[in-house]
Amino acid sequence: MLFVVDIGNTNITLCVFGFAAAGRAVRGPSKIWRLSTSLLKTTDEYGTEILNLFHYAKLDAAGITAVAIASVVPSLDSVFSVLTETYFHKKAFFVGPETRAISGILYDDPREVGADRIADAVAAYAFFGGPAVVIDFGTATTFDCIDAKGRYLGGVIAPGPLISAESLAEKTAKLPRVEIVRPDNAIGKSTIKSIQSGIYYGYIGLIKEIIRRIKRELPDNPRIIATGGLAGLIVPEIKEVKRIIPELTLEGIRIIWEKSR
Fold first, then answer.
1. What are the residue numbers of the active site?
2. Which of 14, 135, 175, 245 has most Cβ atoms within 10 angstroms of its Cβ?
3. Predicted pLDDT at 80
Protein backbone atom coordinates (compact mmCIF):
# COMPACT_ATOMS: atom_id res chain seq x y z
CA MET A 1 0.00 0.00 0.00
CA LEU A 2 1.04 3.60 -0.65
CA PHE A 3 0.48 5.96 2.29
CA VAL A 4 -0.08 9.55 1.14
CA VAL A 5 0.05 12.62 3.40
CA ASP A 6 -1.04 16.15 2.47
CA ILE A 7 0.15 18.56 5.19
CA GLY A 8 -1.86 21.78 5.04
CA ASN A 9 -2.02 24.79 7.33
CA THR A 10 -5.39 23.82 8.80
CA ASN A 11 -5.69 20.07 8.21
CA ILE A 12 -3.49 17.11 7.46
CA THR A 13 -5.18 14.74 5.03
CA LEU A 14 -4.01 11.14 4.93
CA CYS A 15 -4.99 8.25 2.70
CA VAL A 16 -4.01 4.81 1.52
CA PHE A 17 -3.82 3.63 -2.09
CA GLY A 18 -3.81 -0.04 -2.96
CA PHE A 19 -1.51 -1.58 -5.54
CA ALA A 20 -2.42 -3.25 -8.82
CA ALA A 21 -0.82 -6.49 -9.93
CA ALA A 22 1.90 -4.57 -11.77
CA GLY A 23 2.99 -2.88 -8.53
CA ARG A 24 1.47 0.51 -9.39
CA ALA A 25 -0.72 2.42 -6.95
CA VAL A 26 -4.28 2.40 -8.28
CA ARG A 27 -6.45 5.48 -8.63
CA GLY A 28 -8.95 6.04 -5.86
CA PRO A 29 -7.82 6.01 -2.21
CA SER A 30 -9.30 3.17 -0.17
CA LYS A 31 -9.43 5.25 3.01
CA ILE A 32 -9.14 8.97 3.79
CA TRP A 33 -8.61 10.62 7.19
CA ARG A 34 -8.20 14.23 8.34
CA LEU A 35 -6.29 15.51 11.36
CA SER A 36 -6.02 19.07 12.65
CA THR A 37 -2.63 20.58 11.91
CA SER A 38 -0.68 21.35 15.09
CA LEU A 39 2.84 22.69 15.22
CA LEU A 40 3.10 21.58 18.85
CA LYS A 41 2.56 17.84 18.38
CA THR A 42 5.61 15.62 18.52
CA THR A 43 6.55 12.83 16.12
CA ASP A 44 5.26 10.27 18.59
CA GLU A 45 1.95 12.08 19.10
CA TYR A 46 1.31 12.16 15.35
CA GLY A 47 2.62 8.62 14.96
CA THR A 48 0.38 7.05 17.60
CA GLU A 49 -2.59 9.03 16.29
CA ILE A 50 -2.02 7.67 12.78
CA LEU A 51 -1.53 4.11 14.03
CA ASN A 52 -4.86 4.40 15.87
CA LEU A 53 -6.53 5.39 12.60
CA PHE A 54 -5.00 2.34 10.93
CA HIS A 55 -6.13 0.12 13.80
CA TYR A 56 -9.78 1.19 13.63
CA ALA A 57 -9.77 0.90 9.84
CA LYS A 58 -8.39 -2.65 10.22
CA LEU A 59 -5.28 -1.77 8.23
CA ASP A 60 -1.84 -3.13 9.04
CA ALA A 61 0.90 -0.49 9.09
CA ALA A 62 3.34 -3.22 8.10
CA GLY A 63 1.55 -3.35 4.74
CA ILE A 64 2.72 0.18 3.83
CA THR A 65 5.47 -0.15 1.24
CA ALA A 66 5.98 3.56 0.49
CA VAL A 67 5.10 6.98 1.92
CA ALA A 68 4.61 10.12 -0.22
CA ILE A 69 4.15 13.56 1.34
CA ALA A 70 3.19 17.03 0.10
CA SER A 71 3.73 19.71 2.72
CA VAL A 72 3.19 23.47 2.90
CA VAL A 73 4.21 23.57 6.57
CA PRO A 74 8.03 23.37 6.58
CA SER A 75 8.28 23.00 10.37
CA LEU A 76 6.42 19.68 10.13
CA ASP A 77 8.59 18.21 7.37
CA SER A 78 11.17 16.83 9.78
CA VAL A 79 8.43 15.58 12.11
CA PHE A 80 6.87 13.49 9.35
CA SER A 81 10.21 12.42 7.95
CA VAL A 82 11.18 10.93 11.31
CA LEU A 83 7.64 9.56 11.78
CA THR A 84 7.86 7.71 8.47
CA GLU A 85 11.16 6.07 9.41
CA THR A 86 10.09 5.30 12.98
CA TYR A 87 6.58 3.95 12.44
CA PHE A 88 6.68 2.68 8.85
CA HIS A 89 10.41 1.95 8.46
CA LYS A 90 10.47 3.79 5.14
CA LYS A 91 12.13 6.92 3.80
CA ALA A 92 9.49 9.51 2.97
CA PHE A 93 9.21 10.87 -0.57
CA PHE A 94 8.44 14.63 -0.55
CA VAL A 95 6.80 16.38 -3.51
CA GLY A 96 8.86 19.31 -4.76
CA PRO A 97 9.24 21.62 -7.79
CA GLU A 98 11.83 19.30 -9.36
CA THR A 99 9.22 16.59 -9.98
CA ARG A 100 9.39 14.84 -13.35
CA ALA A 101 5.60 14.52 -13.39
CA ILE A 102 5.11 17.99 -14.82
CA SER A 103 6.38 19.35 -18.14
CA GLY A 104 7.70 22.57 -16.64
CA ILE A 105 7.03 25.19 -13.99
CA LEU A 106 7.02 28.69 -15.46
CA TYR A 107 6.99 30.53 -12.13
CA ASP A 108 9.82 33.09 -11.81
CA ASP A 109 11.14 30.92 -8.96
CA PRO A 110 9.73 27.36 -9.15
CA ARG A 111 10.73 26.77 -5.52
CA GLU A 112 7.96 29.15 -4.46
CA VAL A 113 5.18 26.89 -5.78
CA GLY A 114 3.55 24.93 -2.96
CA ALA A 115 3.71 21.15 -3.12
CA ASP A 116 -0.10 20.95 -2.96
CA ARG A 117 -0.40 23.26 -5.99
CA ILE A 118 2.02 21.10 -7.97
CA ALA A 119 0.03 17.98 -7.02
CA ASP A 120 -3.25 19.62 -8.06
CA ALA A 121 -1.79 20.62 -11.43
CA VAL A 122 -0.32 17.16 -12.09
CA ALA A 123 -3.59 15.37 -11.28
CA ALA A 124 -5.73 17.79 -13.31
CA TYR A 125 -3.55 17.36 -16.40
CA ALA A 126 -3.37 13.57 -15.97
CA PHE A 127 -7.16 13.28 -15.73
CA PHE A 128 -8.34 15.96 -18.16
CA GLY A 129 -5.41 17.29 -20.18
CA GLY A 130 -4.89 20.98 -20.72
CA PRO A 131 -5.48 23.79 -20.63
CA ALA A 132 -6.98 23.57 -17.17
CA VAL A 133 -7.46 25.63 -14.05
CA VAL A 134 -7.64 24.07 -10.59
CA ILE A 135 -9.33 26.02 -7.81
CA ASP A 136 -8.37 24.62 -4.41
CA PHE A 137 -10.63 25.85 -1.60
CA GLY A 138 -8.30 25.46 1.38
CA THR A 139 -7.00 27.80 4.08
CA ALA A 140 -6.01 29.96 1.15
CA THR A 141 -7.88 29.63 -2.12
CA THR A 142 -5.48 28.96 -4.97
CA PHE A 143 -5.95 28.99 -8.74
CA ASP A 144 -3.42 26.92 -10.66
CA CYS A 145 -3.18 27.19 -14.44
CA ILE A 146 -1.87 24.45 -16.75
CA ASP A 147 -1.42 24.85 -20.49
CA ALA A 148 -2.05 22.36 -23.29
CA LYS A 149 1.50 20.99 -22.93
CA GLY A 150 1.07 20.26 -19.24
CA ARG A 151 3.23 23.15 -18.08
CA TYR A 152 2.44 24.95 -14.84
CA LEU A 153 1.92 28.58 -15.85
CA GLY A 154 1.27 30.18 -12.46
CA GLY A 155 -1.90 31.22 -10.75
CA VAL A 156 -3.62 33.22 -8.06
CA ILE A 157 -3.62 33.07 -4.26
CA ALA A 158 -6.46 34.62 -2.25
CA PRO A 159 -7.47 34.36 1.41
CA GLY A 160 -9.97 31.57 1.99
CA PRO A 161 -13.42 32.25 3.48
CA LEU A 162 -12.39 30.91 6.89
CA ILE A 163 -9.42 33.28 7.05
CA SER A 164 -11.71 36.17 6.15
CA ALA A 165 -14.21 35.23 8.86
CA GLU A 166 -11.51 34.78 11.50
CA SER A 167 -9.79 38.04 10.57
CA LEU A 168 -13.06 39.96 10.80
CA ALA A 169 -13.71 38.58 14.28
CA GLU A 170 -10.15 39.22 15.49
CA LYS A 171 -9.80 42.74 14.14
CA THR A 172 -13.16 44.15 15.27
CA ALA A 173 -14.57 44.68 18.76
CA LYS A 174 -18.18 43.62 18.23
CA LEU A 175 -18.30 41.30 15.22
CA PRO A 176 -18.50 37.59 16.09
CA ARG A 177 -16.89 34.58 14.44
CA VAL A 178 -19.44 32.95 12.11
CA GLU A 179 -19.97 29.66 10.32
CA ILE A 180 -19.54 29.77 6.54
CA VAL A 181 -22.96 28.94 5.09
CA ARG A 182 -25.09 29.96 2.12
CA PRO A 183 -27.45 32.72 3.34
CA ASP A 184 -31.05 32.69 2.16
CA ASN A 185 -30.84 36.39 1.26
CA ALA A 186 -28.14 38.87 0.38
CA ILE A 187 -29.61 41.40 2.80
CA GLY A 188 -28.88 40.10 6.30
CA LYS A 189 -31.34 40.85 9.12
CA SER A 190 -28.78 40.23 11.89
CA THR A 191 -25.07 40.82 12.37
CA ILE A 192 -24.28 37.13 11.90
CA LYS A 193 -26.36 36.85 8.72
CA SER A 194 -24.89 40.07 7.38
CA ILE A 195 -21.36 38.74 7.85
CA GLN A 196 -22.30 35.41 6.31
CA SER A 197 -23.76 37.20 3.30
CA GLY A 198 -20.70 39.39 2.87
CA ILE A 199 -18.28 36.48 3.04
CA TYR A 200 -20.30 34.01 0.97
CA TYR A 201 -21.54 36.24 -1.85
CA GLY A 202 -18.43 38.40 -1.82
CA TYR A 203 -16.35 35.26 -2.16
CA ILE A 204 -18.41 34.04 -5.11
CA GLY A 205 -17.83 37.40 -6.77
CA LEU A 206 -14.09 37.07 -6.17
CA ILE A 207 -14.00 33.58 -7.71
CA LYS A 208 -16.02 34.57 -10.77
CA GLU A 209 -13.92 37.66 -11.47
CA ILE A 210 -10.64 35.78 -11.19
CA ILE A 211 -11.95 33.05 -13.51
CA ARG A 212 -13.04 35.70 -16.02
CA ARG A 213 -9.61 37.30 -16.05
CA ILE A 214 -7.73 33.98 -16.24
CA LYS A 215 -9.82 32.90 -19.23
CA ARG A 216 -8.92 36.15 -21.00
CA GLU A 217 -5.22 35.35 -20.56
CA LEU A 218 -5.29 31.68 -21.58
CA PRO A 219 -5.32 31.02 -25.35
CA ASP A 220 -7.94 28.27 -25.21
CA ASN A 221 -11.04 27.76 -23.13
CA PRO A 222 -9.71 25.90 -20.05
CA ARG A 223 -11.50 23.17 -18.14
CA ILE A 224 -12.05 24.42 -14.58
CA ILE A 225 -11.84 21.90 -11.76
CA ALA A 226 -12.43 22.44 -8.04
CA THR A 227 -11.13 20.70 -4.96
CA GLY A 228 -10.79 21.46 -1.25
CA GLY A 229 -13.03 21.53 1.79
CA LEU A 230 -15.38 24.37 0.83
CA ALA A 231 -15.71 23.49 -2.85
CA GLY A 232 -19.06 21.76 -2.32
CA LEU A 233 -20.52 24.87 -0.68
CA ILE A 234 -19.21 27.48 -3.13
CA VAL A 235 -19.08 25.75 -6.52
CA PRO A 236 -22.85 25.31 -7.09
CA GLU A 237 -22.98 29.10 -7.51
CA ILE A 238 -20.24 29.12 -10.18
CA LYS A 239 -21.32 27.61 -13.50
CA GLU A 240 -17.82 27.83 -14.98
CA VAL A 241 -16.60 25.02 -12.70
CA LYS A 242 -17.34 21.68 -14.38
CA ARG A 243 -16.03 19.16 -11.85
CA ILE A 244 -15.43 18.84 -8.11
CA ILE A 245 -12.80 16.23 -7.20
CA PRO A 246 -12.26 16.24 -3.41
CA GLU A 247 -9.27 13.88 -3.54
CA LEU A 248 -7.46 15.69 -6.39
CA THR A 249 -4.39 16.69 -4.33
CA LEU A 250 -3.99 13.16 -2.98
CA GLU A 251 -4.20 11.75 -6.50
CA GLY A 252 -1.57 14.22 -7.64
CA ILE A 253 0.80 13.10 -4.90
CA ARG A 254 0.23 9.50 -5.96
CA ILE A 255 0.97 10.28 -9.63
CA ILE A 256 4.13 12.25 -8.77
CA TRP A 257 5.38 9.40 -6.58
CA GLU A 258 4.71 6.92 -9.39
CA LYS A 259 6.63 8.98 -11.94
CA SER A 260 9.55 9.52 -9.55
CA ARG A 261 10.32 5.78 -9.28
1. 116
2. 135
3. 97
Per residue in 81-123, pLDDT tens?
Answer: 999 999 999 999 999 888 777 888 989 999 999 999 999 999 9
Task: Judge: domain 2-94, CATH 3.30.420.40.
Answer: yes
| pLDDT score of 22 more than 70 | no
Q: pLDDT for 208-245, tens place per residue?
A: 999 999 999 987 889 999 999 889 999 999 999 989 99
What pLDDT is attached to residue 26? 77
| Overall fold of domain 104-161+190-252 | Nucleotidyltransferase; domain 5 (3.30.420)
For residue 23, pLDDT beyond 90: no
Residues of the chain with CATH 3.30.420.40: 2-94, 104-161+190-252
Specify the pTM: 0.90
